[in-house]
Amino acid sequence: xxxxxxxxxxxxxxxxxxxxSSSEAVPFEATYQGTFTIAAVLLTFNGEGxxxxxxxxxxxxxxxxxxxxxxxxxxxxxxxxVILTGANGDELHLVNSGQDCLDxxxxxxxxxxxxxxxxxxxxxxxxxxxxTAHVDAQVLGATAEGVTGTFLLxxxxxxxxxxxx
Length: 165
Prior knowledge:
Strand content: over 45%
Low-confidence stretches: 1-22
Largest sheet: 8 strands, antiparallel, barrel
CATH architecture: Beta Barrel
Number of helices: 1
Structural class: mainly beta
Oligomer: single chain
Order of helices and strands: HEEEEEEEE
CATH class: Mainly Beta
Mean pLDDT: 87
Strand order of the largest sheet: 1-2-3-4-5-6-7-8
Helix content: under 10%
CATH topology: Porin
């Protein structure tokens, strides 16, 4: 009887998810596809994808862009707010700082940025972390108000271990 109790305890301990301190960093990766609009200096985008610790999720973002004074067809991200929302409603909040560059011959846009995790909701309340963001986008249409297109956005880095709600 004593052996079976000990075995049951070991099995229970092994089957539980590993709890980590909220200060420990865990790897974070995400990939999203969706649509964007650039009107004047405001970039808005939304899409769907998957992220570690969020699973199937959505991305919604707004960025203020400023033309780069040195590199034509490049725009610096001067203000940014990105929200990743998991199926359960928990949010991870990011801010990116970087640059998007347009190839005027093909309409393709490539961007690189530094990602900073600035909190969230639910189990991401108080989350922090850093990493990189990379975007490949394609302009599909243009009007007097701006341009629209599609994007593939990837994040990679670390974040403080997600907690429990």
